[in-house]
Amino acid sequence: MSRVAPSPDNLVTVDLAAISSNLAALRALLPEGLGVAGVVKADAYGHGIVPVAGRLKTEGAEALAVALPNEGALLRRAGIQGPIMVFMGLTPEQAPLAVAHGLSPFLGVWDDFAALSQAAQAAGKQATCHLKIDTGMSRLGVTPEEALDLLERAAALPGLKIEGLASHLATSGVPGDATAQKQAQVFSSLLAEARRRGHALAGSSLEASGGVLAPPAGAPEPPGLTRLGISLYGGLPAPQSLGIAPLRTAMRFTSRLAAVRRVPAGAGVSYGHTWKAPRDTWLGVVAAGYSDGYPRHASNQAQVLIQGKPAPVRGRVCMNAIMVDLTGFDPLPQPGEEVVLLGRSGEREITADQLGEWAGTISYEITCSLGAANRRRHRS
Ligand SMILES: *Cc1c(COP(=O)(O)O)cnc(C)c1O
To answer: Cys-Cys link to 270, which of 135, 246, 316, 380 (CB 3.0-4.6 A)?
Structure first.
């Protein structure tokens, strides 16, 4: 199988120092004793799983988290030690892989606990896992009503250590949100009861970035870990969490001007002519498009930065090209000139949240897409 290499014109640069700085800023918000699991699923939200995980471990992150067992195995092969949570759990066939690499899947179904216990015994090892409870996300996990019963039965299985209870907030990042508060209360009372029954569950976790930037009220039972993803990369879980912590955008995406051209008043630009030049206009043709992970929904919405100045996107984003308006640029940018589509240029910055807003999506999807499609370089 072969794949065509990504365009040499386009580059994702990941600033690992920004991730370190974000971790420190987030730690400052955490209650004493609450550890950080750095979430590096989806290739670290497009930032590169191995370099990011390595950096987070160097910075003292107490654990890491991925979505899939394969991602955890990749981290182990790269020499990463310490706890690794696996959010999507496992299929019974993946249990031996999880045991071999010492991964800690989130499980909410009896059969999966049984499969992990069996694989642990077969390997002569102790497996670790978390009991996933659905407190309101309607995604994965046992119901709160059945949680304690499943906990008792799973904890009695040979070769298995349940390190914590886990749940996930559906509406986090919004200060004072009632749904998050209700979920937190359900989770806390289950954790308190489980601990009263003698289960330590020291690695329990509820909050992601949203729960840290806007902690739900009424969560008296402190879990052991918080699971931080987007905020480590400088993105926000919700617009309402802007400004709570001084976060830095870790990803920068740059391209080049493939051409600079003048079009006459009235000329339609790009597919469907969704933009027409109101007057004679200088356009720059940027050598990136939706095949490079740039969102097509940003058509006629987004801006790019050239020489530290904003240039609006005109017409539809194409597969390999974007037209931008160079009105007001003096001197006129030349073909080959750097274009910043995400990140800083001079005094200005386009954040992943801003680009996400222009495209009707979220920072998470922006960095995943750009990171997956392009050459990537890491700066320490
Ligand atoms: C992705 C994910 C996180 C991290 O969420 P952020 O909003 O990126 O901080 C935490 N927990 C679970 C279960 C997740 O799936």
So the answer is: 316
- The atom of ligand 1 lying closest to the CA of 172 is 7
Task: Per-residue pLDDT tens, the chain, 380 aa: give them.
Answer: 578 899 999 999 999 999 999 999 999 999 888 999 999 999 999 999 999 999 999 999 999 999 999 999 999 999 999 999 999 999 999 999 999 999 999 999 999 999 999 999 999 999 999 999 999 999 999 999 999 999 999 999 999 999 999 999 998 788 888 999 999 999 999 999 999 999 999 999 999 999 999 888 766 567 799 999 999 999 999 998 899 999 999 999 999 999 999 999 999 999 999 999 999 999 999 999 999 999 999 999 999 999 999 999 999 999 999 999 999 999 999 999 999 999 999 999 999 999 999 999 999 999 999 999 999 999 99
Domain identity same for 228 and 322:
no
Closest ligand 1 atom, residue 210 Cα? 7
Distance from the CA of 87 to the center of ligand 1, in angstroms?
A: 9
* Side-chain-side CA neighbours of residue 272 (13 Å): 8
Which tokens is 335 given? 């073909």
Instruction: Identify whether 276 is part of a domain.
Output: yes
Which among 41, 45, 233, 364 is annotated as catalytic?
A: 41
Predicted structure pTM score: 0.96
Alpha-carbon distance 340 to 355, whole Å?
Answer: 12
| Domain identity same for 217 and 317 | no
Residue 174 backbone phi and psi in degrees, to 5: -110, 110
Structural domain that includes position 211: 29-234
What are phi and psi for residue 171, nearest 5 degrees? Answer: -130, 40
Residues 192 and 326 in one domain: no
The CB density around residue 138, as the number of other CB atoms within 10 Å, is 8
Instruction: Using DSSP bridges, classify how beta strands 303-306 and 281-286 pair: parallel, antiparallel or unpaired.
Output: unpaired
Indicate whether 196 and 289 sit together in one domain.
no
Q: Is 271 a catalytic residue?
A: yes
CATH number at residue 264: 2.40.37.10
**Ligand 1 pocket list (CB less than 6 A):** 39, 41, 87, 168, 208-210, 227-231, 237
Q: Is residue 20 a part of any domain in this protein?
A: no
Residues 155 and 37 in one domain: yes
Q: How far is CA 269 from the centre of its chain?
A: 34
Tally the domains of the chain. 2
In a domain, 72, yes or no: yes
> Is 161 among the residues known to form the active site?
no
Residue 335, CA distances (Å) to 92, 101, 269, 313 in order: 55, 50, 19, 17
